[in-house]
Amino acid sequence: WGNWLRKWTGEENRHGDLLNKYLYLSGRVNMREVEVTVQNLLADGGDIGVGTDPYKTFTYTSFQEIATQISHANVAAQARQVGDKLLAKMCGIIAGDERRHAKAYKLFFQKCLELDTSNALLAFHDMMRLKITMPAVFMRERGKALGETFKKFSAVAERTKIYTPLDYSDILDHLLEVWDIQHLKGLTDKAEAAQQYLCSLPERYRKVAERFAGHHKTDNYSFSWLEMAQSEPKPIAG
User: In angstroms, rounded to a whole number, what is the distance separating the alpha carbons of residues 70 and 91?
Assistant: First the structure.
C-alpha cells in the first residue's frame, strides 16, 4: 500500500510540474502570482472530510480522479480546437493517468464493499452528503480570502464546460453503476436508507444543475495570474 501511495503521489506531482513549466515557458501568465497562489494553498492546508477512514478515502479518490480525468480531457479538447497541439497532448496524457488512478481506487472500494458492505456503503453515503470538493478548494491569490480564488476558478470552469455540475452527477451515476449499489443485499437498516438516498441523488443533482444552468454566464472574473506588464508573448514552438 505504501508503495502504491508513493508512486501515485509521485505521478500526481509530475502533472503539476509539467503544467507549471508549460505556463512558465509560454510567457502568458504572471508566474510570480501563480507561485504565490501555490504557496498559499500549501500553507493553508485543507480538509477533504475523510479523516483516517480508508472507506471514505477510497470513495473520495474514486470520485476525484474521475473528475480530474474529465477536466483535463476537456482542456485537451479545447486546446486542440484552437491549435495548441502541445497542450492538447500534455493534458491528454494527464487525463489518461487520472483514468488509471480512478480504475485502481474503484477496485479498492469494490473490495471494501465485498468485505464490509454496510460500513463501506455508509462511508460512501457520508461523503456524498458532505459533497466531494476538489483538493484546491481553499485556493486563494495574494491578499484574498480562503477559497475566494477557487470559487472564481470553479465558475470559469463551469462556464467554459471544463467541469460542470452535470459532470458531478454523471460521475456519481457511474460509481453507483460500477459498484452496483442498487442491488447490494444483506444491509443493515441504516445502510439500506443510505442505499436509497444514494440511488436517488444523481437525478436530484441534475435538476439543480438544470435550474441554475448559465447563472455565471454574465459574471466577469479577473485573476492576478493573468495580469501581465509585458508585450504579447510568442507561442511555444511545437
Answer: 10
Instruction: Tell which phi-psi region holds residue 131, choosing left (phi > 0), alpha (psi between -120 and 50) or beta.
Output: left
Q: How far is CA 146 from CA 110, 133, 143, 151, 157, in A?
A: 35, 14, 9, 10, 19
Check if the beta carbon of residue 221 is closer than 8 Å to that of residue 151.
no
Distances (CA, A) of 148 to 6, 19, 38, 89: 31, 22, 14, 31
CA 202 to chain centre: 17
| Structure confidence by residue, pLDDT tens digits, 25-52 | 999 999 999 999 999 999 999 889 999 9
Phi, psi angle pair for 168, to nearest 5°: -60, -50
Summarize the chain as % helix, strand, coil (round to 5). Answer: 70, 0, 30
Q: Which of 179, 195, 180, 186 is nearest to 108 (CA)?
A: 179
Three-state SS at 131: coil
User: What percent of the chain shows pLDDT beyond 70?
Assistant: 94
Contact 150, 136 (CB under 8 A): yes
Q: In terms of Cα–Cα distance, which of 148, 128, 150, 123 is closest to 201? A: 128
Do residues 62 and 102 make contact, with C-beta atoms less than 8 angstroms apart? yes
| Closest to 136 measured CA to CA, from 1, 19, 3, 2 | 19
